[in-house]
């Protein structure tokens, strides 16, 4: 591995969010601009079903929304501080410190969300995540995640530090979904009604 690989911002995402967990929680808007997509996602789930939130952060506003809708939430985040905040806020739900890339919970969920978390992974890690999605998806499970609009990497900033993002090409996402037993329900690139997020809604085939 080269020094460039070791110094890549992709390698520091977990540490960045852990060191600034309380800052992120304080700054995270509680306005649910994602709600139109959740309104498409929820009808695909059984009432009171289980939802796996990958990269759940501090649990607000996304996990909170699903808890309030009566779903059983399992939240996964690599930041121990974020998970501690979740446990304080929603003690009846399950919160686990874990890396989504190596997740193996041994159970399946009616819905899986990776909102603004999956896109922090490198392209190769994103490709490998589709096996993780499949492993945790019940028959007809819904999958909701955000990506970039085209293949490439982008470096933003957070708290003065580089913040890594990456994306595959939409055609590759479609191919990976199909190869792992998911069909695309809806995809919108740079949705003007959702902060210009690129959003994928898919469903596991029986």
Describe the structure.
The chain has 206 residues and is α/β, with parallel strands linked by helices. It has eight helices and nine strands. The strands form two sheets. Strands 3-2-1-4-5-9-8 form a seven-stranded mixed beta sheet, with helices on both faces. Strands 6-7 form a two-stranded antiparallel sheet. It is globular and about 45 Å long. The N and C termini lie far apart (41 Å).
The N- and C-terminal alpha carbons lie at a distance of 41 Å
Strand count, sense and barrel status of the largest sheet are: 7 strands, mixed
Report the portion of residues in β strands: 25-35%
Unreliable segments (pLDDT under 50, ≥5 consecutive)?
Answer: 1-7
Shape: globular
Q: From the helix content, strand content and strand pairing, which structural class follows?
A: alpha/beta
**If helices are DSSP runs of H or I spanning 4 or more residues, what is the number of helices?**
8
Summary tags:
alpha/beta, 33% helix, disordered N terminus
Write a concise synopsis of the structure shown.
The chain has 206 residues and is α/β, with parallel strands linked by helices. 33% of the residues lie in helices and 31% in strands.
List the helices and strands and how they pair.
Layout: H1 3-7, H2 13-19, H3 21-27, H4 35-41, E1 50-54, H5 62-68, E2 72-77, H6 80-89, E3 94-97, E4 109-114, H7 123-136, E5 137-147, E6 152-158, E7 161-167, H8 170-179, E8 182-191, E9 197-204
Parallel strand pairs: 1-2, 1-4, 2-3, 4-5
Antiparallel strand pairs: 5-9, 6-7, 8-9
């Amino acid at each position: 591995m080269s020094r460039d690989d070791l110094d890549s911002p992709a390698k520091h995402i977990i540490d960045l969010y852990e060191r600034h967990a309380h800052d992120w929680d304080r700054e995270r808007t509680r306005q649910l601009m994602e709600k139109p997509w959740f309104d498409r996602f929820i009808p695909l789930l059984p009432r009171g079903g289980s939802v796996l939130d990958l990269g759940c952060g501090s649990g607000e506003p996304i996990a909170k929304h699903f808890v309030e809708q009566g779903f059983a939430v399992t939240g996964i985040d690599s930041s121990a501080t974020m998970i501690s905040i979740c446990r304080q806020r929603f003690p009846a739900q399950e919160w686990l410190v874990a890396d989504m890339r190596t997740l193996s919970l041994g159970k399946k969920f009616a819905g899986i969300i990776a909102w603004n978390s999956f896109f922090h992974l490198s392209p190769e890690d994103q490709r490998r995540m589709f096996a993780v999605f499949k492993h945790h998806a019940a028959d007809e499970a819904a999958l909701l995640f955000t990506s970039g609009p085209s293949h490439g990497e982008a470096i933003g900033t957070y708290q003065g530090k580089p913040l890594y993002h990456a994306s595959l090409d939409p055609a590759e996402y479609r191919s990976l979904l199909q190869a792992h037993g998911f069909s695309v329900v809806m995809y919108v690139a740079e949705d003007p009604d959702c902060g210009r997020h690129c959003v994928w809604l898919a469903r596991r085939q029986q």
